[in-house]
């Protein structure tokens, strides 16, 4: 049942790994009918599979927003600071949405929102 839930509710394979753990525990329950052992085994397998799936699956990237508009950096945007971008023919103050990322000059970026007079952008390579 948990494996089927994954088809309809995207849980990053958490429900799927719990379902796989439940199937394995069901097979083990035929040989070891002790309920506490089954619960501990299910918890251990579920935890191990979730951790393993996090390492195997690629890290999630920022999804490309349909309403994001392209722009180009005029100056470097240092991590956590502002720089300048060319947006709709005008120079705007901009900050990267990822506080830890720096964006080099003359890079394609996407404007994702506005905070006052500052545009919040993400670099193109973060979206693809």
Secondary structure topology:
Elements: H1 2-8, H2 14-29, H3 35-56, E1 69-73, E2 82-87, E3 90-96, E4 108-115, E5 118-123, H4 124-127
Parallel strand pairs: 3-5
Antiparallel strand pairs: 1-2, 1-4, 2-3, 4-5
Membrane topology: Multi-pass membrane protein
Subcellular location: Membrane
Pfam families: NfeD
Task: Please tell me about this protein's structure.
The protein is α+β, with helices and mostly antiparallel strands and 128 residues long. It has 2 domains: 2-56, no CATH class; 69-127, Nucleic acid-binding proteins (OB fold (Dihydrolipoamide Acetyltransferase, E2P)). The chain contains 4 helices and 5 strands, in the order H-H-H-E-E-E-E-E-H. The protein has helices at 2-8, 14-29, 35-56, 124-127, and strands spanning 69-73, 82-87, 90-96, 108-115, 118-123. The chain has a 5-stranded mixed β-barrel with strand order 1-2-3-5-4. Helix 1 (2-8) packs antiparallel against helix 2 (14-29) and helix 2 runs antiparallel to helix 3. The longest helix has 22 residues, at 35-56. The protein is rod-shaped and about 70 Å long. The model has no long low-confidence stretch (mean pLDDT 84).
CATH superfamily of the largest domain: Nucleic acid-binding proteins
Radius of gyration: 23 Å
**What is the domain tally?**
2
Weakly predicted, low-confidence segments? none
Query: Termini, distance in Å?
Result: 34 Å
Q: Which CATH architecture of the largest domain is right?
A: Beta Barrel
What general form does the structure show? Answer: rod-shaped
Structure classification: alpha+beta
Question: Order of strands in the sheet with the most strands?
Answer: 1-2-3-5-4
Give, in order, the helices and strands. HHHEEEEEH
Helicity range: 25-40%
């Amino acid at each position: 049942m948990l494996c089927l839930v994954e088809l309809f509710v995207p849980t990053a394979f958490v429900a799927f790994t719990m379902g796989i753990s439940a199937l394995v525990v069901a097979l083990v329950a035929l040989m070891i009918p002790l309920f506490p052992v089954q619960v501990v085994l299910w918890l251990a397998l579920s935890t191990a599979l979730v951790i393993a799936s996090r390492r195997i699956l690629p890290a999630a990237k920022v999804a490309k927003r349909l309403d994001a508009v392209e722009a180009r950096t005029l100056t470097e945007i240092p991590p956590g600071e502002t720089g300048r971008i060319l947006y709709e023919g005008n120079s705007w103050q901009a900050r990267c949405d990822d506080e830890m990322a720096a964006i080099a000059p003359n890079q394609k970026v996407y404007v994702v929102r506005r905070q006052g007079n500052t545009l919040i952008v993400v670099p193109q390579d973060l979206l693809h």
